[in-house]
Amino acid sequence: MSNSFLIKTEKLYKKFPMGPTVLVALDNINITINKGEFLGLVGPSGSGKTTLLNIIGSLDSPTQGSVEVLGNKIETLSHQDAAKLRNNHIGFIFQTFNLLPVYTVYENVEFPLLLQDIETAKRKELVMQALEWVGLADRKDSKPSQLSGGQSQRVAIARAVVKKPELVLADEPTANLDAKNSHNIMETMVKLNEELDTTFIFATHDEKVMKYLKRKITLNDGYIQRDENISLNNQ
Amino acid sequence: MLKFLFKGLVRDRSRSLFPILTVFIGVALTVFLYSYLNGFVSDMIKSSAHYNSGHVRIMTKAYSQESNQSPNDLAIIGIDTLIQDVEKSYPDMIWTPRIKFGGLIDIPDKNGETRIQGPVSGMAVDLFSRESPERKFLNLDESLIKGRIPEKPNEILIADDFARRLKVAPGDTATLLSSTMYGSMVMTNFVIAGTIHFGIAALDRGAIITDISDIQKSLDMNNAAGEILGFFKDDNFHSDKAYGIRNSFNEKYKNSEDEFAPIMGALPEESGLSDYMGLIDIASFVIIGIFIFAMAIVLWNAGLMGSLRRYGEMGVRLAVGEEKGHIYRTLILESIMIGIVGSFLGTLFGLIPSYLMEIYGLDLSFLFEKSSVMITGVLHADVTYETYLIGFIPGILATVLGTSIAGIGIYKRETAQLFKELEA
Lengths: 235, 424
Ligand SMILES: Nc1ncnc2c1ncn2[C@@H]1O[C@H](COP(=O)(O)OP(=O)(O)O)[C@@H](O)[C@H]1O
Ligand SMILES: [Mg+2]
Prior knowledge:
heterodimer; A: Rossmann fold; 4-stranded antiparallel sheet; B: 2 domains; binds magnesium ion
């Protein structure tokens, strides 16, 4: 990629028609995100965090303006190409884990690789490696229903990073976890960010997450209120 | 991926059990009805062939005009050479002459006075020659109720119901009043050798069977017969071959002006079954169509409920980068797997009653008591190799159809929307 940035939004707007009026969920967002960042979108509920994350993740498209992600213009991407972008380069982590209940831990983590036509031996290697990263190799044959919330979220992280994506998008990943598990999850992600140079973007309003962030973009009513780099020394 | 989907189906019973059950029931019914209809047709064809028209039938042109009245004054004369002829030309067939005749049967009392009389429909067939297939075709040995099969001239078999009505038994004398080929009245004395139950209402009412030589003698029909029947050696009706033989035979007499020239007809036209056979074909189509329709509706609804339950899964799969079209195709693939399993089980279970009915039959003769159609009262199913496959058509078509319609919702919905529903 010739661009030095990973993601760039320009004059990005997202509007939802609400009866006679229009709700502006994202209001003139201009940001540039570089490779290896560990960035949080923070702000109260309804401030537009999820909407922005979904547009960056090519699950949704902007109403106006442009969004470039890994060299792809999201606003003009066909849904086939969007799927390809997600499949090859982006991992998702959700508040509610969203593991597939009928499949084992191993199979859940393996699923993204099945879509990529990777041969069995290589798949196995990648899945086991991802499970090692999150410390759940010994639970590979468990079903999601047999796991705690923290373990489930770690499986979800393994699923997001198993294909070694450039970018991981996490929407409120700690909202359903207690303090101990929240810290554990964040530490896992910091480690992956440092070891694999994976870019992480969080949407969160969880105070416990804040201290791990290296950059914090505060949204309010859809516009950027503040964009601050947090030097590691501050911690 | 296939393995992945298969695991999902096996582990999530709600995803597979109900659809498989639906397909199972529909397919089992289809298979059974299909073999039942097949059996009905082949029973009808068999009875018609054996008791009435053969697989092909030769008559004179004049006789054929009113063949159901058995006009023996229009019979074929010189049957020996004609039979030799067709035996040479069509060696695949068995040829046998028959005379149908009507008349009155008169049962005398001890003094030789008429005790009771009744109208008969008689059939004179080759009972005595060693190679004659008639005992087998008319199923005489199995149908015998009392007495024995005729062994010498002037012995007859009489329908058991008829015999009871006339209050006669084997050994009694019966006099046939009929008319000769040339129109004069004639009385012939016979001895009743045995009684038989045809299982065909039209015959059980008043049929007698004699050896053909007796009737040739008494009706003045030397070397003559009303009809010459041809049968395929495997006793199955082969439509194309039968029509081929008919055409080639009739070609020879095409230009004959003689109303006594022979003419051949094939079973469907001779028995009046051709309409029936066409109807049954349509009925099979309709039945399969109805089952496809009904199952597809049930499976469509099951698919809709299934996709509601599986929104979470769909959202995750989209997020992971699976393309919408791919998700849709995997749903169809799943439905094909379900269709195959359901059809397989349904076929297996549909075949059980079909086989039982093929072997034992289902006695519905009471329904046909008044009927003059040549149909045995005991219905059989007929399991052919098509029966093994026919269920898969509605089974797989219905699951695929149902899932395709149910899945359109997923396909049409915007990715973001599906995804939000996942978050909700
Ligand atoms: N599909 C939609 N239709 C209408 N309004 C929506 C839709 N999605 C989000 N919104 C609105 O956009 C605003 C931002 O939502 P969201 O991005 O989910 O906020 P956050 O994640 O920060 O809580 C909210 O007011 C929300 O109600
Ligand atoms: Mg949100």
